Amino acid sequence: MQRAGLRPDVVSYALLINAYGKARRKEEALAVFEEMLDAGVRPTHKSYNILFDAFAISGMMEQAQTVFKSMRRDRYAPDICSYTTMLSAYVNASDMEGAENIFTRLKQDGLQPNVVTYGTLIKGYATVNNLEKMIETYEEM
To answer: How far apart are CA 27 and CA 30, in angstroms?
Structure first.
């Protein structure tokens, strides 16, 4: 693309990061993200969610957290998709304390968890064999 004299935009970068994330190619996803920032391309709200998803799928918690903080710094309010994707990242990392914190935070920010959000949290509790929390979360839903 660049060899053809075209400059990648935020959509191009986000799609490439997403593809690398789904392929679980962490190093390449991170390299493209860093290249995007170095090129002065700032993520949009939608591309932030794509980045969260790519990093969550790849188990790149540190990068997902950095992007989440960057989103707030860039004055984009995380939506339910943003929070659910971050929740999924914590669940995939078996970090249920982090998952619970992000779940609490989304409610503090005035968002209403949806069926996907609750399902993600329940999946996390199932993964760590916490039947009590699974039932509690199901009943809260």
So the answer is: 5
- Convert the pLDDT of each residue in 2-51 to its tens digit: 566 678 888 888 888 888 877 888 778 778 888 888 888 887 888 788 87
Residues whose CB is less than 8 angstroms from the CB of residue 9 and which lie 6 or more positions away in sequence, other chains included: 41
SS3 2: coil
The yes-or-no verdict on residue 1 having pLDDT over 60 is: no
Is the CB of residue 64 less than 8 Å from the CB of residue 30?
no
Q: From residue 43, give the alpha-carbon distance in Å to each of 14, 29, 67, 107.
A: 8, 14, 9, 25
Q: Pick from 114, 139, 136, 110: which is nearest to 125 by CA? A: 136
CA distance 29 to 40: 17
The predicted model gives 88-98 an average pLDDT of: 89
Place of tokens 């690398």: 20
Q: How many angstroms separate the CA atoms of 85 and 60, rounded? A: 12
Rounded CA gap, 52 and 49, in Å?
5
